[in-house]
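[09:14] KT: can someone run the structure on this one? pasting the chain below
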Amino acid sequence: MQYLTVSRDIEGESGIVNLRVHDILFMEFSIPADRVVVHTMEEQFYMNGTLKYWSGMLSASGYTFRNVDRNLVNVDRIMLIDSVYKKAYFEPEIQKGSKCCTMAFKRYNKIKEELLAYNPGILIV
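[09:31] RB: done, structure tokens below
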């Protein structure tokens, strides 16, 4: 089981948190925060670096994170893709407040095929 070192706040004043990589749904870069924002089902965390750096690092460690827009998604955690709004969801049903990440409209078909190749259990709605 591998962990990433993150913080609950942008400046790191809350201290260090060790977050299981498996718990990560997706990551996005926040320009205003100048940090990578890491999303889990319950919370969001912050860490330094770039998405390109973390993509390479996670891939080299055996994890399947893919760039689907301006974010990295944990392919193993995707349960459903909304083909109308081009969003990936991490629950079997879309509900108010469900966590999701956007997918690039222009590359949607290619991204969808790639995600399904890694995780054939993803539902397309």
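[09:33] KT: thanks! The chain is about 15% helix and 30% strand.
[09:34] RB: yep, looked fine to me
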